[in-house]
Specification:
The protein has 675 residues and is of the alpha+beta class. The chain is built from 21 helices and 17 strands. Strand 16 and strand 17 form a beta hairpin. Helix 4 runs antiparallel to helix 21 and helix 14 runs parallel beside helix 15.
Length: 675
């Protein structure tokens, strides 16, 4: 009775029901993707023999009638779990039965099966998995015997074969018999070894466990311990960042190869192994060897790297430095600071390549979480906006990578939150605030030029908080000047080259647009910008949330994107318990709109002159992820008194966001695992 009462009491609380519903939803999709996607892939076996495959098998042995007997003898050197044969039907529905029997060299039948000939498709390989593996310990070779009882001329199937030279057949010890006569040929077949991708289930299960731990952590911190929102964010973001680290292998994040090379170059400088110019650059021989198989379009083969017998520590030979002609990007070192520390520390500790990569990406995720944690704590308005924006699939996916977007997003969130605190909450701007915003400005502007506009939010700080109007404008001018100067020092040469020469399209050899062309053809340029906004706004919104992860090649279902967009929209509104809810005035919203519009326009213009080929009718290369730092300000434009949320709604929105993001990562894993 006591147990039943406790159960009833547990389900009476809404947050407890949300917890159960969240875990149930995640579990259902875990089982769905597991059974539909992961299971079939995990059951695939390693072909032990691929020499005589479909492309090489161009001949047929002729109809296999009831009186015919096909025998293929092949040696085995490891356990054989099955065989794959290629059948032909002459594009007709045949009758009779096809029988496959497998014998060892002691003439003992180890496997036998039969299938109706009418069920076979033309020109198709069929897999036959043995009841028990056949080991070379017990036999040196196996004999595949194919017969077709009940078949007759013009009503029988056939098999494909290859015709290698006699020397190759002798070397491999393979012999094909047609009705007892030896022929210089070999059937088109493959022998299956052990399960190749059985690890997928274990990896998928581990991801599921971490995700459930994130949901339970959200419940424990927010509902049981009643901790502030930023603590719940930190708990969930760290765990889901770990999930993203696993789901998206190194190099599968946009531009990550170049970002990795840049961070590696800076770690070389930190360790005193290289000067300040690239290329060429030096890398550990072990890193070059292991990472040679990495791909920007990962497949299940890349997941297999996690379980390869690489050493956790690198020996002396693997630590030897080799010169590598590689590509890096010209961004300030502090944009890669967590990754640089991770790489340098791993190399000092002689960690292997995979531990080094995981540690570096984990540190990147931790720094992002720390910066966003401070932003949520500081901001007096839109705490839930920062939290949900920081838990989007795209944001977490970028945070656990070598991309410098991690630092850009974290610094942008913190600077925005600090300025909002000065505008709406703090009674007096002190030296700590002045220096803090100045440092953030100096760090952020060189990382990406477009984000320097965020500092212009300082215009909304009431002059009374700074003592007098003149002092306010001096401080705002210094902040703005620091932003422009710090960015200009890093981008001056690029700007000069762009103005003088225009850009080279990354995908073609023709000249791109230049600032000079835009100024001389202002009307046409404005038309291109308007057309870009009209045609690509939907793509920008979807890619901001994370409709396509990786290099825009790992898509999630659109309805998850819609749910996350709704959560973002609702997150900006005040709750019933906010007695003095902060609502931006019309004047403030106009200025926020100008700042955001300037940032978005600058981002589009940057790609206009650096990526778009001449003659294009829209600006290419802009992605929604570029606008994540502007997300809190964009949503503040919708904040008003017209919509008021119930007290429990923010918690519900968090549960929905975490659940949908988790399912998005499960779906992404399933997509990659089936490639």
């Amino acid at each position: 009775m006591v147990f039943k009462e406790n159960i009833k009491l547990f389900f009476k609380k809404r947050e407890n029901r949300w917890l159960i519903l969240s875990i149930l939803m995640i579990s259902l999709f875990f089982l769905y993707y597991g059974c539909e996607k992961i299971g079939p892939e995990a059951a695939k076996r390693i072909p032990n023999n691929q020499e005589y495959n479909q492309t090489e098998a161009v001949s047929v042995i002729g109809e296999i009638r009831s009186t015919d007997h096909i025998s293929q003898i092949t040696p085995i050197v490891e356990d054989v779990y099955g065989v794959r044969l290629r059948f032909g039907t002459y594009a007709r529905n045949n009758t009779g039965t096809v029988v496959l029997a497998v014998y060892d060299d002691n003439d003992q039948c180890r496997y036998e099966t039969s299938i109706p000939a009418v069920s076979l498709e033309d020109n198709t390989f069929y897999d036959f998995v043995f009841d028990e593996p056949i080991s070379p310990i017990h036999t040196d070779s196996i004999e595949l015997v194919i017969t077709s009882p009940g078949s007759s001329s013009k009503d029988a199937v056939t098999l494909y074969y290859c015709t290698p030279d006699a020397q190759e057949l002798d070397e491999k010890g393979q012999t094909l018999y047609l009705n007892g006569d030896s022929v210089q040929a070999v059937l088109a077949f493959e022998l299956f070894g052990k399960d190749r991708f059985s690890f997928l289930w274990g990896l998928f299960l581990f991801i599921y466990v971490v995700i459930v731990a994130a949901v339970l952590g959200l419940y424990w911190v927010l509902c049981r311990k009643k901790k502030p929102l930023e603590y719940a964010f930190a708990m969930v973001a760290l765990l889901l960042g770990l999930v993203s680290n696993i789901v998206f292998p190194t190099f599968s994040i946009p531009d990550e190869p170049n970002h990795f090379n840049t961070a590696y170059h800076y770690s070389n400088m930190l360790l005193g192994q290289e000067g300040n110019t690239v290329p060429p650059m030096v890398k550990r021989s072990e890193d070059i060897r292991v990472m040679s198989g990495f791909s920007t379009n990962p497949t299940k083969e890349n997941y297999g790297n996690y379980f390869e017998p690489y050493d956790f520590f690198v020996d002396q030979e693997g630590q030897a430095l080799e010169s590598k002609d590689t590509t890096a990007v010209s961004y300030p070192f502090w944009g890669y600071l967590p990754q640089i520390v991770g790489l340098a520390l791993s190399r000092l500790l002689c960690l292997g390549t995979l531990p080094m990569l995981f540690l570096s990406r984990l540190l990147s995720s931790c720094v992002y979480v720390g910066l966003t944690f401070l932003a949520i704590r500081k901001t007096p308005v839109g705490k839930l906006v920062f939290c949900i924006g920081g838990l989007l699939p795209m944001t977490l996916h970028l945070s656990a990578s070598f991309s410098f977007d991690t630092m850009c997003i974290g610094l942008s969130f913190l600077l925005t939150a600090w300025l909002l605190q000065l505008i709406y909450q703090k009674k007096q701007v002190d030296r700590k605030d002045i220096w803090g915003c100045a440092i953030l400005t100096l760090l952020l502007a060189p990382c990406k030029l477009v984000y320097l506009v965020l500092i212009f939010m300082c215009v909304l700080i009431p002059w009374s908080k700074m003592g007098e109007k003149k002092k306010k404008w001096k401080i705002c001018a210094v902040w703005s000047l620091l932003s422009v100067i710090s960015a200009g020092l890093f981008y001056l040469q690029i700007i000069i080259n762009t103005v003088q020469k225009g850009s080279q399209d990354m995908l073609a050899s023709d000249n791109g647009y230049s600032l000079t062309w835009i100024l001389n053809h202002l009307g046409e340029a404005v038309g291109i910008l308007i057309r870009t906004v009209v045609e690509k706004t939907n793509f920008y919104v979807n890619s901001l949330v994370g409709s396509s992860l990786g290099w825009l090649d790992t898509s999630i279902h659109q309805y998850w994107v819609w749910i996350l967009i709704v959560c973002l929209f609702l997150s900006v509104f005040p709750t019933e318990q906010e007695k003095e809810a902060i609502i931006p005035t019309v004047r403030q919203k106009i200025w926020i709109l100008l700042v955001v519009s300037a940032g978005i326009l600058l981002a589009i213009l940057t790609m206009f002159v650096s990526w778009t080929s001449f003659g294009s009718t829209v600006v290419n290369g802009v992605q929604g992820r570029y606008f994540i730092p502007f997300l809190p300000l964009i949503l503040l434009l919708f904040r008003g008194k017209g919509i008021v949320l119930q007290e429990s709604t923010p918690t519900l929105l968090l549960y929905v966001t975490v659940t949908v993001t988790s399912i998005a990562f499960l779906e992404s894993f399933a997509v990659i695992a089936t490639r």
